[in-house]
Amino acid sequence: MDDSQSDGLFDGFREECGVFGIFGHPDAANLTYLGLYALQHRGQESAGIASWEGRRIAVEKDMGYVADIFTEARLSRLPGKSAIGHVRYSTAGESRLENAQPIVYNTNKGPLALAHNGNLVNAQEIRQELEAEGAIFTTSSDTEVFLHLMARSRRDSIVGALRDALARVRGAYSVVLLAGEKVIAARDPQGFRPLTLGKLGDAFVVASETCAFDLLDAEPLRDVEPGEIVTFDAGGVASAAFAMGHRTAFCVFEHVYFARPDSVVFGRGVADARRAFGRRLAEEHPAPGDVVVPVPDSGVFASLGFAEASGIPYGMGLVRNHYVGRTFIEPKQSIRHFGVKVKLNAVRTVVSGRKVVLVDDSLVRGTTSRKLVRLLKNAGAQEVHLRISSPPTTNPCYYGIDTPQRKELLAAQKTTEEIREFIEADSLGYLSLEGMLTAAGRNENHMCAACFSGRYPLPFGGVDEQRSLFSRF
Ligand code: AMP
After folding, report:
1. Is the distance from the beta carbon of residue 363 to the nearest atom of ligand 1 less than 6 Å?
2. pLDDT band with cut points at 50, 70 and 90 for residue 339
3. In angstroms, what is the span from residue 362 Cα to ligand 1's centroid?
4. CB of 117 within 8 A of CB of 17?
5. Can you tell me whether residue 295 is helix, strand or coil?
6. CA 230, 202, 146 angle in degrees (round to 5)?
7. Using CA atoms, how far apart are residues 27 and 150, in angstroms rounded to an integer?
8. Which segment of 177-191, 287-301, 317-331, 431-445 scores lowest on mean pLDDT?
9. Is residue 217 scored above 80 in pLDDT?
10. Cα 165 to ligand 1 centre (Å)
């Protein structure tokens, strides 16, 4: 089968998401809306909020941006003191409302809503088994297996049912559940994706990233630990470990690109980590430049670090148009090749006649870098030296970050010199794996850097084949 097709079982393995939950606040849905606003970078395809309105779970979800989906009228249909929310991103193919989260089911354990960030590596297997027994799935997202497994649990309590479900699933998950008025948060035993707890007055909040707390003026308390279930209800807060003793596998790509720089993720400020990557990069790959130019916004903090360590002045040689949506449609075939120019333009007065050190966080397919090098040269840059604040991306992610298949990853196909030639840069340097992990403050025994190293901390037996069979890419 052409791997650009889907067979409709699962939509491939390319979801990036953000989750939020709040317990014990009269404005639960409104605050969830704000929380999702701060987490919008984690997913722009769809968003949803579910709240406990006393007798049932109310839910509002749709395709698009948080700000466009949630009108006052929609938020007013989400009463109650407990709510959870989700933003989702799956990059290509048809986007489907049925896959938007939270997923809400009325089960034998009562009404349940669930929001998931991450990717399960054995969802396909579980789904096939359940379908063979007659289960009917209504989405093509791996997330739905959580609810099926919970509904089938023989235990009466919600946490017991969740434990049963978590004993079956393998992979990366930070989940937030609404079970009646209870809000429950859980994180996989290796802690691939972030999940943090906070307090807002007497209410409790949980979010993928601390930037959501900042917006609400909530106080961050601590991370949900890998292998921990935290429950908020009228009786207070309860914590239970469902898996212990696993090596952590915190995703280094959260630090490289995905998380917001104003967040603290896995106990480390993201902006600080990026700056440290940039400093280390300057030591490993000095460049003969007059000005250090970031690719906005992804390369900004690494560029600052590079400029600090190299002594080369920092200059905003590229400016971003913030009003370009994801679905920019080129207006006319005959005036194509807008490409990256719509989003980024060179500042001639900063780059003209200069040797530019261009810094970005990662190079995936190489198309962005190639266009930017050309853009800078057309604006008069004498030389362009590209520096990447992470190692060559050589392997796909199976744990929840959107990466293309191996064959589309430029560094899996070409040497660094061949890539340099392709992007037409005067020189190219990547941060080393060891340099990145040192700057991130942890070694590879505690972080997942599989997209760079190929060493996958959790077996994904079968996913590779499933991916090529079922993914839409
Ligand atoms: P490319 O043109 O494929 O080399 O894309 C590289 C650019 O995409 C860099 O500027 C990154 O900041 C950005 N990027 C890297 N990974 C992702 C991702 N998973 N989702 C969206 N953008 C990404």
Report:
1. yes
2. low
3. 6
4. yes
5. coil
6. 25
7. 29
8. 317-331
9. yes
10. 34
